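seq/struct pair 1
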Amino acid sequence: MALRPLSRARDFAFPDTAWDVRGWTVRTEVGDDKVGRVEDMLLDGSGRLRYLDVDLGFLKKHVLVPLDSAHADRERETVRIEGMSKERMEAVPEYALDPETLDEDYQRRLDAVYGRASLPARDAAGHRAMNPDGPLDLQRMGVLEDEYRVAGDDPRGWAVLTGDGRRVGKVAELLMEPGVMKARYLDVAVDEKTLELEPVDRHILVPTERVRLDRGKKTVVVSGLLAGDVARYPQYGGLPVTHGAARILEDLFGRVETGAPEVGPPPSGTARRQWEDETLSHFYGPRTRARMHVEERHG
C-alpha cells in the first residue's frame, strides 16, 4: 500500500471539487457523536486522496478513514463517518503514523470494520480469478417492468449530486441482477453542459452501494464521486458489462458490503404502511446508503 501523508506532499494541489479538511471536526453518522479531528490526509501512488488520518482524542489513538466513507460538511467544517458509531470506532485498527506499516493484514482489518467486502480471490499470478471479458449477469429495469417494480422510491429521473452538492447528471436507468433482483448500478446520464464537457451523450455507471437517496429533494448523492473526475470515468455504452469493467469501477469507487434486502412481496394494508415507515425509511433515508431492490408485481 504505497501511501504518503499530504503534509509531506508539497507538490500536491487540491482540485476545485475537493477540500482540505485537515483540522476539521469528525463526527459519527450513527449517534452524531464527536470523536476527534482530521490530523492529515493520505495520498496513493498516483496522487489521489485515499484516507483521512483522524486523531481520536477520546481513545488517544489515530485511525484511518477511507475517503469514500467520509462526508464533508463545508459550512460546519465537519466530517461525518458513514455507518459508524462512537462505539464501533474503537474497533478501527490503530494507525501508527507511518504509511510503511500499512500491510495487507492491516488493510483487511480496516475493510472489515468499515463493512467493505473482501476482494475476489487471485490466481497464482496474482490476477483476480475471473474472466475480464465475461459479462456480468445484469438486466435493465426497463425490460423487467411487466413482472417487477422497484420497491420504495424509484430514483430514475432524479438528479445525481456529488458529495459536495454539485450536479453531474440524472439517473437514466437501473441495472438489475436478475438472480437476486437487486439493483447493482445506476446508469447516469451526464450533464455535459454543466460540467463543460464535449457533448457526446456520456453515460457512466455508479454502484448502488455508493449512493444515498434523498427522497425529499428527489436527488441521489454519490459517495466518492468528484465532478472533476467524471470526464475520466469509463463511459457506459449499454449492456453487457464485463467483469473487467466492473473491476475498474471497483477501483474507482471502492468495494463495500451491499447489505441489500432480499426480494419478496411486502405486507399489505396497515401492515404495509408500517413496513414502509420502519423499513423503507431505514433503507432509503437521506443519510443512509441506498438499498434498492425490486419486488414481483401482483395483480
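seq/struct pair 2
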Amino acid sequence: MLNWAKQFNIFCFLDSQHYTIKPCNYECLLGAGVKQSVNLITEPLQKGSWYFGHLSYDLKNELHGFSDQKEDQIQFPHFFFFVPQFIVFIKNNELIIEADHPGEIYKQITNSTVYEESHATAIPIQQQLTREEYVEKINSLQKHIQLGDCYEINFCQQFFADDVMIEPISVFDRLMSVSPNPFSALYKINDSYLICASPERFLKKEGNHILSQPMKGNVRRNVNDHAKDDELKDTLKKSSKDQAENVMVVDLVRNDLSKICKESTVKVDELFGIYTYPQVHQMISTVSGELKEDVSFHEIIKATFPMGSMTGAPKHRVMQLIDEYEPSSRGIFSGSVGYITPEGDFDLNVVIRSIMYNAATNYLSYQVGSGITFYSHPQQEWEECLLKAEAIKKVLAGGPAL
C-alpha cells in the first residue's frame, strides 16, 4: 500500500498496528492525492468529504495569540487538511477502496514494487542540549514551579542530523518492527515527512461524544523476565509521582472539554489505566463528554489544543515558558495527525515517538520530552527522555533490516 502511495506528493497513512485500544474503527487507513486542501483553521470543513491532515504545535500561535519565531526546519505548515483522491482502508479484515475505478487501484497496489533494504547506514545524531544544559533548564523551570507560575510543564529537547538521506518508507517499516504503536503514521507533504510511532490519542469524536486519552507516567519494561515486568507494571500503577502528574493533565483535559461540552457531561471514564507497549508500561486516563449543539471543528480545537499532556498546567503560562526555554521549534512534534470522516467524526493522535525529515534539505530530527514537576529529578528526567527515544535511536543506528 505504501509503495503505491509514494508516487503522490501528499499522502497520509494511519496504522493501529493491530492494537485494539477502544474505541477503534480502522486497522489502517490511507488518503492519497489531493482533490482540495484547507490551510487555515478558521476555514470551514465541508461535510460529506473525507479529510486527512495535521495540526502543528505552532498552530498555538494563531489559536492563542503567541508569536514564537523559532525556525521549523522540517517545514510542515501550521495547519493542513486535504480531501484525498483515493481512500484505502482495512476494517474488520476487509480491504475497502474508495475511488472511481477501485479494481484498477487494487491492481496497482498489488503490483507495486516493494523496496527492500538489506542494510541501513548509521546516521550520526547530534544533541541540541548537553546533559548539563538540560539539567540547568530543568532547575530553572522548577524555580518557576516553586514561585507558583505553574504546576507541571512538559519540556522537550531535539536530536538532529544534517545532510542525511533516508528512504522514509523503509525507515517507517523498521520503526514499526521495533516499536509498533496504535496511533502510528507515515505522512508526507511534498518534501516534508513524518514517521510516527505514537502510542497516544489526542481526541476522538463520534456523533456528539468526544473523548481524550492523555498519557502521563511510564516505566521501562523488562521484556526478558515476565515476573519482573509485572512488578514494574505494578510499581507504575502505585506510583504517587506518576499519579500526581497524570491527574494534573486529567484535570486540565476536563477543563478544556467543559468549554465545548454540555454541562455535567464531562467525566473520567478511566483513571490511571496501565497499558503495555514494546518498550514501556504507560499510565493512561480517559476523559469524555457530550458536545454542545453545532460546535465546529475550529471551536473544538481552539478549546483543547495543544493537548495538556504535551504542555502542562496552567496551559497558557506553560506555553509561554516552553517558548522561552526550548531552544528549537516543535513544529509538527507534539501536534496531531489524523482523519475526519464525511459525517464530521474524527480521530487525532499526539505526534510523539516520531522522526521528522525534510527530503529537500536532508535535515532529520526527533524530539523527546517529559513532564516536569516540583518533585522531578533532572537527571532522571534526562534518562526518561533517552528511554522514550530508544526505538528511534535503534532504527537510525543502522544494521540489518528488522
